[in-house]
């Protein structure tokens, strides 16, 4: 009876509130995992190389899940996939901490990566439906909540460490919290099951629109991945700040990225998606050129803030365009663009290391600035391509 009452009150506004909670949950689970990596390294006695191997299987799992995610959402609808992946994603956290040994970490972390991306594709598919129902751009705000959850999750992790709680206890608490969030939000989701179903797990060729958008997202994720992994090292070795302040580069970047995602939707409404992509590319390039040209604490900090604002909207905007493709259903389009872009996130950090080894870390950041210029160029050339499919109405 309660479920029937809730279902009768499903509105675009309620669906948006429910998705707010689920996007926050996704970010919280990932941040909870990341915040306890040092403790897991100690618990399992991992060397740096062994830890690197464990960390590598997570993005491999994420990448592996993409065709399955696109097909399952297309075949069964986003609602059941959100339910299964959200519960399983949170339940996998304690399994990581309770693994009997190093050998078991690989399949569990691989599964964690898979479930995270299953949740990502299904949530974004549902979010595109809500965006269409509301008639205005809201996708970036959902990604902003994911980023905000990263800060909250890191804070909770620090709290758990301070009071000496093990990763297992920490993860069990997060799992229980996740169950409560899913319980209260799931009834407000609608299922957009495709009328055509799906024939199997197959790769499809992206059309001109999805290839262009995928390349833009690839460059954005390349810059984002580099900033995630190398910002602290850049502040330490190039900016040469005291050891206690090396984290500032990461904090400035992450803070600007989270803030930028909450500011992006109104800008999209006023100026359109091509403009936001061009502006984002210029911010990335300008911020990195400033940081490279004037590697001083204040200038580099301003530069990293600009980069954070620059990368903030790229993935949400690209997803918004891809979800309106006339060639494929939203879930398949999202999986295609996410597959292309994910390689940028994987290749960016090692590319920085390779270039830094040859020409120095400072020059490697100059090379990443070219990604921003690439985004600007791809967003400027033949912008009419971005207008295919149904458009989002102005608010």
UniProtKB/TrEMBL annotation:
GO terms for cellular component: membrane. The keyword Transmembrane applies. Residues 15-395 form the Major facilitator superfamily (MFS) profile domain. It comes from the Bacteria. It holds the Pfam family MFS_1. The keyword Membrane applies. One of its GO terms (molecular function) is transmembrane transporter activity. The chain crosses the membrane at residues 50-69, 81-98, 104-123, 144-163, 169-189, 209-231, 243-263, 275-296, 302-322, 334-355, 361-381. It is found in: Membrane. It is a multi-pass membrane protein. InterPro entries: MFS, MFS_dom, MFS_trans_sf, MFS_Transporter. Keywords: Membrane, Transmembrane, Transmembrane helix. This is Major facilitator superfamily protein. It comes from Nitritalea halalkaliphila LW7.
């Amino acid at each position: 009876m309660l479920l029937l009452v809730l279902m009768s009150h499903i509105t675009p506004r309620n669906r948006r509130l429910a998705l707010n909670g689920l996007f926050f949950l996704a970010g919280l689970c990932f941040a909870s995992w990341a915040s306890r990596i040092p403790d897991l390294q100690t618990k399992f006695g991992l060397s740096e190389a062994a830890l690197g191997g464990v960390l590598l299987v997570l993005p491999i799992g994420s990448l592996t899940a993409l065709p399955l995610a696109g097909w399952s959402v297309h075949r069964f609808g986003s609602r059941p996939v959100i339910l299964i992946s959200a519960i399983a994603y949170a339940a996998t956290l304690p399994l990581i901490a309770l693994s009997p040994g190093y050998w078991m970490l690989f399949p569990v972390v691989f599964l964690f990566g898979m479930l995270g991306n299953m949740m990502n594709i299904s949530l974004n598919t549902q979010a595109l439906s809500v965006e269409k129902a509301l008639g205005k751009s809201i996708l970036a705000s959902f990604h902003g909540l994911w980023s905000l959850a990263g800060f909250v999750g890191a804070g909770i992790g620090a709290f758990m460490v301070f009071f000496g709680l093990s990763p297992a206890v920490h993860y069990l608490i997060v799992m229980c919290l996740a169950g409560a969030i899913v319980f209260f939000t799931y009834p407000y989701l609608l299922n957009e099951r495709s009328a055509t179903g799906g024939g199997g797990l197959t790769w499809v060729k992206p059309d001109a629109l999805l290839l262009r958008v995928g390349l833009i997202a690839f460059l954005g994720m390349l810059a984002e991945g580099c900033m995630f992994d190398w910002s602290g090292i850049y502040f330490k070795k190039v900016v040469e700040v005291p050891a206690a302040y090396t984290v500032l580069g990461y904090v400035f970047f992450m803070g600007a990225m989270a803030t930028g995602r909450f500011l992006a939707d109104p800008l999209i409404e006023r100026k359109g998606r091509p403009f936001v992509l061009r502006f984002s590319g210029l911010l990335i390039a300008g911020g990195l050129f400033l940081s490279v040209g004037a590697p001083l604490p204040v200038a580099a900090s301003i530069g990293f803030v600009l980069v954070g604002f620059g990368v903030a909207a790229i993935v949400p905007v690209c997803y918004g365009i891809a979800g309106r493709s006339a060639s494929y259903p939203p879930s398949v389009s999202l999986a295609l663009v996410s597959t292309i872009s994910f390689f940028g996130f994987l290749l960016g950090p090692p590319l920085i290391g390779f270039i830094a080894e040859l020409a120095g870390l400072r020059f490697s950041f100059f090379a990443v600035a070219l990604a921003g210029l690439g985004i600007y160029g791809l967003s400027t050339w033949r912008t009419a391509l971005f207008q295919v499919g149904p458009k989002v109405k102005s608010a």
